[in-house]
Write a structure and sequence with these properties.
Elements lengths: L2 H9 L6 E4 L1 H14 L3 E6 L6 H10 L2 E4 L2 H9 L7 E3 L6 H9 L4 E4 L2 H10 L4 E5 L7 E3 L9 H13 L3 E6 L4 E3 L5 H17 L6 E3 L15 H16 L5 E4 L3 H4 L3 E11 L8 E5 L19 E3 L6 E7 L8 E11 L7 E5 L20 E4 L1
Parallel strand pairs: 1-18, 2-3, 2-11, 3-4, 5-6, 6-8, 8-10, 10-11, 13-15
Antiparallel strand pairs: 1-12, 7-9, 12-13, 12-17, 14-17, 15-16
Helix pairs in contact: 2-3, 2-9, 5-6, 6-7, 7-8, 8-9
Length: 376
């Protein structure tokens, strides 16, 4: 927790859970990415945290933006980004949304199927497209499914189809899985990208761009490699597979940019056991999966938890949220260690919650307010 967040929470008087994001951490993270990959443009993944203050400071620093909807495009523009600094990175888009993005000046679109290419060709004539490919997400704490991307063997056909319809076949993208702690995870995907570049060149379609995606981690319970380690590993892989003809590259950090910048303050609502002889305490907070902690699903992301009683004896506890939904349990298979002295009404701090919390918070499930957000 930064001193700025500590001071803000000390003076806060409102009731209910909240997340506080420190912009100084965002600035430091952007600088770290820029140093680690100096020849690579940063396209911040707006979905991670679209707070206007976050977008505004990143726009001032020179960041570009990866967006998933027209609303996110408009947010980036409102923050000061120009259209040439925005990509429409969602491969599943309504044709009218493609048209609106094109009207707003966006010219860079992700695709992973010929049918999507055809929509872009009709709604955004002459635009640049990059094809997303499937890749192995081994090593990621939040692996991605097969929902996005096509088989690498299919990518050249998708890009050539776009070329025939008047689009600019621009490049290839992939994502190695969110919270990826293996710095070598990009190597296999870059080998596939290089093969696609070669195949497209044989077809008379010289490609320019490799979108390296996101996956850069935030620090939760375990240490993670520094941005420099990722930059060195990615540059080695680029050199290995592309030789002296390095492509233009971009990255799409989201979690790695804002995760560590945020802290949630919550309150203990109830502590109980399920029977008189049950030693396992259940600790219920005023925030849970539906209040912004959706990434605790399957206990994939394990947030550091601090209390005002840290230093006292601890014991395993099940941690759950306040809603009337049996799925609203964060950690049960692997209980969390919490102080035995923890009491109803105590404040609990959940660290590294700057990413994917406000955006995953339900609007009013069970009548609970959405997660309050403060950016300082």
């Amino acid at each position: 927790m930064t001193d700025r967040i500590r001071e803000f929470l000390r003076n806060r008087r409102e009731d209910g859970p909240c997340v506080v994001v420190d912009l100084d951490v965002v600035r430091a993270n952007y600088a770290a990415f820029a140093r680690a990959l100096p020849d690579t443009r940063v396209f911040y993944a707006v979905k991670a945290n679209p707070a206007p203050e976050v977008l505004g400071v990143l726009a001032e620093l020179g960041s570009c933006f990866d967006t998933a909807s027209v609303a996110e495009i408009e947010m980036a523009l409102a923050a000061g980004a120009t259209p040439d600094r925005i990509s429409f990175g969602n491969t599943i888009k309504k044709e009218r949304d493609i048209a609106r993005a094109f009207e707003l000046g966006v010219r860079l679109f992700a695709v992973d199927a010929k049918a999507e290419v055809e929509k872009v060709a009709r709604a955004a004539p002459g635009a640049r497209i990059f094809c997303r490919i499937l890749c192995d997400g081994a090593g990621a704490e939040w692996p991605l499914s097969r929902k996005f991307g096509c088989d690498p063997d299919m990518a050249a056909d998708v890009l050539e189809h776009g070329h025939r319809l008047g689009l600019a076949a621009y490049g290839v993208s992939f994502h190695v899985g969110s919270q990826q702690k293996n710095v070598e995870a990009w190597d296999g995907a870059l080998a596939s990208a290089a093969a696609i570049f070669e195949e497209c060149a044989l077809r008379g379609l010289p490609l320019s761009l490799v979108n390296l995606g996101g996956g850069f981690p935030a620090k939760y319970l375990q240490d993670v490699p520094a941005a420099e380690a990722y930059g060195e590993a990615i540059f080695r892989a680029l050199s290995r597979h592309f030789g002296n003809h390095l492509p233009e590259t971009i990255i799409e950090p989201g979690r790695g940019m804002v995760g560590a910048a945020g802290m949630i303050e919550a309150e203990v609502v109830l502590i109980s056991t399920k029977s008189d002889d049950d030693a396992m305490r259940w600790v219920y907070l005023d925030i849970g999966k539906f209040g912004g902690l959706a990434e605790t699903m399957d206990e994939a992301i394990r947030y550091p938890i601090r209390t005002e009683r840290d230093g006292d004896a601890v014991e395993p506890c099940v941690l759950a949220g306040p809603t009337c939904d049996s799925a609203d349990v964060m950690y049960e298979k692997d209980p969390v260690l919490l102080p035995v002295s923890l009491a109803i009404g105590d404040k609990v701090l959940i660290e590294a919650t700057g990413a994917y919390t406000t955006t995953y918070s339900a609007v009013a499930f069970n009548g609970f307010d959405p997660l309050r957000s403060y950016v300082i």
